Amino acid sequence: MTFTVSEKTRAVVSSYEEHVAGGFGPLPVALVRAQNSTAWDVDGKQYLDFLSMFSVVNMGHGHPRIVSAAVKAVQEAAVVNIAFLNPLYAKLATRLWEIFGYDKFVGMTSGAEAIDAAVKIARKWAYFKRGITDGTAHILTATACYHGQSMSTASMASKRSPYFNQYLPNVGSTSPSGVLVRYGVIEDLRKALNKDADKIVAFMIEPIQGSAGIVVPPQGYIEEVAALCAQHNVLFIADEIQSGLGRTGANLCHQRNGARADLVVLGKALSGGLYPVSGVMGNSAVMDIVGPFEIGTTMANNPPGCAAALAALDVLLEESLSERANRLGKMLIDRLKSYNLPHVLEFSGSGLFWAVVIDQKPPKITGRRIAALLAHRGLLASCTAVGDRLRLCPPLTISEEELMKGAEIVARVFDEVEHTGYIAGELVESV
Question: Its catalytic activity (predicted)?
Answer without folding.
Answer: a 2-oxocarboxylate + L-ornithine = L-glutamate 5-semialdehyde + an L-alpha-amino acid
